[in-house]
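worker-3 :: picked Rhodanese domain-containing protein
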Amino acid sequence: MHARPLTPDLSVSPQISATDVATLKALGFGSIVCHRPDGEGADQPNFEEIAQAARQAGLQPIYQPVVPGQASAEQAAAFAELLAQLPKPVLAYCRTGTRSATLWALSQAGKLPAWEIQERAARAGFNLKAVVQRIANAGKNPVEVIEFSHTVVIVGGGAAGIAVASSLRAREPELDVAIIDPADVHYYQPGWTLVGAGVFEAADTARTMASRVPAGVRWLQSAVVAFEPERHVVVLEGCRAVRYQRLVVCPGLKVDWHGIDGLVETLGRNGVTSNYRFDLAPYTWELVRAQQGGKALFTQPPMPIKCAGAPQKALYLSCDTWRRNGTLKNIDVRFFNAGAVLFGVPAYVPALMEYIAAYGIDLRFGHTLKRVDGPRRRATFERALADGSKELVETDFDMIHVVPPQTAPDFVRTSPLADAAGWVDVDPSTLRHKKYEDIFGLGDATNTTNAKTAAAARKQAPVVAHNVLASLGLFIGLATYDGYGSCPLTVERGKVVLAEFLYGGKVAPSFPAWLIDGKKPSRLAWFLKERILPPLYWDGMLKGREWMARPTLVD
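worker-3 :: C-alpha cells ->
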C-alpha cells in the first residue's frame, strides 16, 4: 500500500488489502473510498472484505465503482460531495490509483487552474495531461491526442499476451512491440488447483510482471477502456491513446463474482472458497484439511469458463485428501454442474465416472448456483427441469467451492471487435479478426470453440505471431490453429487423466499410448502436471520457446 497525497485531505493509492487497513488507521486516515469494481483482477479482494476490516478499525468505507476510462463529471461531483462529508483524511484507491486521481482532477475543474491540477497529479506520480486537456475541452475526450505509437500492440499481459510477444520477438528481434496491462503480477493460474490441494504454495505461482515482459518490449501499465479500429487506436484510462499497425487482443476473462447473490460478502469466510482467486486457493486447502464430516459442495457454472476441468480438479483432489485421512466416509460430497455432461469430450468421461463412483460423489446436472448465504451456510441453485421449466433448490453446506460465471471483459463486450455474444470475433483457424484485417485475437476472450486453457494459448501464440508478421509483409504463408486444448484432470494426488483434444472434441494425444494413455489415470501425467508444466510455462512458453508448438503453415 502506497498512499500518494493530492491534497492535505485526500490521498490515492493502488489496490489495498484488508491487512492494509490497520496501517491506514495508524496513519490517521478516517475514510476509505473504493473506485475499483469488484472482479477486475485474479488477485483482487472484493470491497466487502476491505469494508469489514475498515468498520472494525473505525474507518468509514465507501464503494463508488468506476469502470476504467469512464469517469464522468457526475461521478466526479459525487466524489467531491463525499470528500466534503467523510471523516478526513480520505484514502481513495482503484487498481493503480489513476481512476481516483482522475475523479479528483475532474472535480477540480473551475476550482483550480489546469496547470495546478496537472502538477499536483504529477507530484503524486500520475500523468493526467489528457485529463486536463479534457477539462479544457469542456469535458470532451481529446481523442486526437496520440501518446504512443507502435508497430504491434498487444492488449493483455497474461499467458497469451506474454507468449505472443515473445514469439514475435523470437522471429523478428527488432520488431517494435508494446504490451498493455495494468497488473503488477503475472500468475501461473493452472497452479492454483494444486495450491488448493496443498501441493503448491501460492507464492510459487506468481512473478512480477516486469520480470515476465520480454526484453525489448515496451510495457504500458494501464487499463484499456476502448478500441477505435477505424482509427487504429486503443484508448487507455486517463484519456490516453495508443496507435498501432497491428493489434493483438488477449485480455483474458472476467470472473463475475457478483454473478452469484451473496457471494462477495462471504468469500474466504463461512466455509466459502474458490480456486479461481489467488488469495483464496490457500483457504480451499485450509477447509479441506479441517473437514472431518458434514456436507461439501462443489459447483460449475454454465460454459464458457477458463479451464472447464478446474471445478472437477478441486472436487477430486479434495475427495482424495479425505480418503487418505479416513474422513471421506463421513462427508456428503455433491457436485452441482450447470451443464448436462461431466466433460465435453466423451472419450474421457468413463475414467472420470470411475472416480465419481469411487469417491461416492452425488453428481447433479442442470444445477446453476444462484445465491450463497454464508452465515446460514445455505446455497440456492436453479435446477433445469426436463420440460424446460426451472425451480429453485436450497441446500445447506459445511464448505462450498464456488466457480463463478465468466464473460469477456466489459471493454471487449461493448467494443466493435465483439460478436453478438461479446467475444472477440476471429477466424478459428488464422485467429485474424473477421472484420478488421489488422487485428488478431487469442486466448480466453475470443469466440473460438476450443477449451479456454493455457495449453490452447501456448499453441495459438506462434500462429498469431507468424500471421501478424505475414500481414506486415515480413513472412510468407499462413499459420493455422487446429483448436488444440489440454486439461490435465487431477483425479487424485499422484494421478492425472490427461485430456487433449482439437476442435470438435477430436482426441489428440501428444504422447504414445504406451507412455501416457490420456483416457486412463496416469502417474507420469501427474509428474508432467506437477514438475514439467510449470517450468515449461515460465521458461518455455513465456520466452518464445515453441517446444511442441510450432505452427502448421499453408500457402
